[in-house]
Amino acid sequence: MRPCIDDGRVSAPHSAKGAGGLMRPRVLYTIGAGHCGSTLLSLSLDCHSDVLAVSEIVGLNAENAGFSGGQDFRNDSFWARAAANYQRDFGEDFWAVHFASLAKKSKLTSAKWGKQNHNAFSSIAKSANVSLIVDAYKQPRRLEDLLQENIGEISVIYLVRDARAVVNSYDRKYKSLWHGLKKIRRLDRRAQSIKGRFPNIPWMTLRYENMTEDFEKTIRSICEFCGLTFQYRMLNPDTASFIGVGGNRLLLKPVQTITTDLSWEKGMPKWKQWLVSIFMFGYHCRLGYLLVSRASREDRIK
Predict the structure, then answer these.
(1) What is the rounded CA–CA span in Å between residue 60 and residue 245?
(2) Pairing with 140, which of 79, 181, 191, 202 sits 20 to 30 Å away (CA)?
(3) Contact assessment for residue 268 and residue 168, using Cβ atoms and an 8 Å cutoff
(4) Tens-place pLDDT, residues 222-248
(5) Which pTM does this prediction carry?
(6) For residue 141, is pLDDT > 50?
(7) All domains of the chain, ordered by start, with CATH?
């Protein structure tokens, strides 16, 4: 068990065992564009005694067995234990599990893919003794595949952010305004499509700005959404003990403070801000984003 001291008490995890004593974990899948706070959210949830965040597990075994991004997870004590449990319970090699969505010419059937992922989550949950796994790959296609194969109980958090901030981040990274604009528009359409086609799936839309401006309130609301008891240690995300796969540079150093990144308001040319606002008008209105930035409003007041 991952012990968690909260107000002097040790919180025990919810029962997640099915037939044969195997763990039947719930899955919390987060979708969203890049730079939307998914790593911060994963770090916070991972601090809960009944949660394990695997981050972008889709990268595991993607190119080489046991590797993700050049890192060998076969030598990690936790992942080696998960692999041993998978081998013992299901008679298969964990390092051969295909986490990424299937290519059109894949020899693996969708049913087998779903079974592999379900069994992998069970072994991971068993190894950590938790009932909730957080999959933060963010891409809608993997979520669709997991839902279509009915691998178990899945809840969704749709992480959103002011489109101007997201596009500005992609613009700086790829030197292309249109790259980020097309990405966020396509992702939002897919998210709304999934929500419509799977109306019974628990769904929470979470704004990055709300999370960073009132972190405790947001984490409490997520705990309520997931059926978890809030634990104060979740307010101090821990990068040192995080064992998830992938993630961004936030994992490279301790999280000192949680603030809202508004650098785009001064760093992004006004014409680009207005262009994105026009293209993403419906998105901004639906999610409650103002079309005039705070910096612009302050200038007008002065």
Answers:
(1) 7
(2) 79
(3) yes
(4) 999 999 999 999 999 988 889 999 877
(5) 0.88
(6) yes
(7) 5-257 (3.40.50.300)
